[in-house]
Structure formats: structure tokens, C-alpha cells
Model the fold of this input.
Amino acid sequence: MNAVNRFLRYVRYDTQSAMDTGTTPSTAKQKVLGAALAEELAELGLYNAHMDQYGYVYGWLPATAGCEGIPCVGLIAHMDTSPAVSGADVKAKIVRYDGGDICLNKEKDLWLREKDHESLSKYRGQELIVTDGTTLLGADDKAGVAEIVSAVDYLIQHPEIPHGRIAVGFTPDEEIGDGADHFDVEGFGATAAYTVDGGELGEIEYENFNAASAKVRFHGLSIHPGSAKGKMKNAALMALEFAAQLPPQETPAHTEGYEGFFHLEHMEGDVNEALLDILVRDHDRAKFDARKALLGEIAARLNETYGPGTVELELKDSYYNMREQIEPHMYLILRARAAMEAAGVTPMEMPIRGGTDGARLSYMGLPCPNLCTGGVNFHGIHEYIPASALTTMTQVLVNLVKVDRK
Done:
């Protein structure tokens, strides 16, 4: 079975993660795919293929004869899909793209339009895997899962290819920032690893955002509007006042590259109580700390205006920029470049405007840069992946672990 067929099979599993469930994995349905993957790895012949109590899947491929002393390298991808868009009953299809717009769903008049998605123009003449427009596709990150499984399968089918020990790991809950919480780094046994969780073909990433999440709670006082003068404290209005003090040009819609942002992800409330959920992101650690400090300053000003305890700010760091952990191990990047070039892919090193399990694992003693999967438009109904990218990345991973005996 090749990577395309595997991918089409994996996306049929609904593995959407969920915030604030208090469980690991955050949704039990992730374990359904996890169990299937553990069984598949065992059938392929990986050693100790299993899923643990937290839904993490592990297995390892022994080194070929004469390569036993080569340090173990890990390949990691996540099984869950984003909570932002449904991943249930995914209807993936392969279409030949010859330009123009792609009709995803004629009945619902849903389209993947070239004018809205400039990346399409690069894929004319190729087969693209798309959805029916009612769900996301799941290339983030079932494409990475399919590519890793297909790569180890290829190595098993071609024992003449020399390689060291290869550790394989599939994680739950990456999309909610919890994918590394229970990862068994010591048991995994790798000295370094790669997450296969990036975008378009060629991307190599070893810089990512420093990330934090903020919950800002507002406590108001409801008084009848007819006699509220000097007494009412409207929590919803205070929440709006807080949001209005954030820099208006420092949002995801106004930034790119290394530019950080505040992202008002969710808001709710009434006169009595209100809540803002804000994501804080910046590649630079000093700027990241300054952003968190600004949230504290705004909260302090509003508490001074409306009374102590009116605004409660809860800040939680999620992950940090992996660059400082990868720089002592730049051979990992050189190896990735060479593996891509050998597969006819032009490497492109770029910062991640987000995070991966690799960012946290790099701070847990497992240097772990990120590689592309080939997917485009993650976390939405317009997600797609060229079928050729799945097979190309399988070859890249084979090249990555192959030992040059010259």
C-alpha cells in the first residue's frame, strides 16, 4: 500500500481533538486510529509496536546489519485534527487540476477558487486530494503519518538500503498544544528526531513562535438600567475596552514572517461576566515577554479604573522557539536538505508561524526540527494536498534515514 492509499484510509477516522476536556487524549476517538496504527506497524514488522494508555503510538525498526552503532533517529507525526473544523465523515477525492476553480460540492455550491488560493497555480497538471467542502481534509497531520508508515514499509521491502535504528511515534492532541505532554522521550530511544508536520513541499522549519494563551475574565455588576448610573459595571463592555487596547496592526491578519501578534480567538459575556481568550505569539523571546507584560498592564489599568479584582488575567506558556535547541545540532538541517535534494525537491527554510510537537520535544532533550508534508490550507474546508507530494515525501524520509557507506 502506498502513501496515497494510506492517507485516504486514515482521513476516514475522525480524530478531532478538543480543548479543556481534562483528559489525555482529549477525545477518545483519537485512540481508534491509534490502535489501528499500532496494529499496522506490528504487521509491517516494527518491534514493540503499541499504543500506550495516553493514546501515543510507538514502534521501532531495527538497524540493518553493520549499522547497529549509528544513533537512532526518530520520525514523529500527530494523529489529531484541528478543533476549528469538523473532521467527521471526511469525503476525500482525487481531482485532476488543469487550472481554474475546483468544485468541491455542486449541491452546496462550494468551491476552491484560484483567485482566493494563489497556491493552486503551482499545481496545474497534477492530481490534488480535496474534500467535499463540508469538512477539513486532515493532511495536518495524517499526511505525515502516511508518509512515515510508507517510508518504513519501503525500507522493510528493500533490506538492501542501509539504515540505523528508526523510532516511530504518533501523538494525540498536537492541535491543542498538548501533543508532547506524555511523550516517552527516554523510551522512544532516539538521539534526535523529525516531526513531519509542515506545509508545502520543500519546507524545513527549525524556528517557531514562542507561544502563550491568555484567559481574561471580567466581573461586572448588573443593576437595572433605569437606576444604573454610577453603579453598573458592564463586564461585556470592559472586555471590549480591554481588546481595544491591543495594538490593532498586530493581529494574524496584519502580520507575516517573523512578526508576532495577539489573536483574539474567542469572546463571550454579558453584564455580569465576560471572557476573552487571547493567543500571544512572537519568535523573539524578549518581544514575547513584552507582549505578556502588556496584557498585565492593561488588566492593571482596568482594575484601577473599575476596582480591584474586576479583571483576572491567567497566562499560560504553551511552547518556545526551538531554534536555540536546534542550533547545536545543525547537522539535522543539513541532512534534511540533502534528503530533499536527492528526491528532486528544493529545500526552503522558513520560520513556523505556529508550533509543532517538535518545539516542545526539543526542550525535553530530543532535538526535533520539522519537515513538510506537502499539504496546503490546513484547518479549513479548502485544505488540499497534491497526491505526488505524499509519494515524494515518502522518498525524502527514506533518503533521510539511509546511511551513505561511501
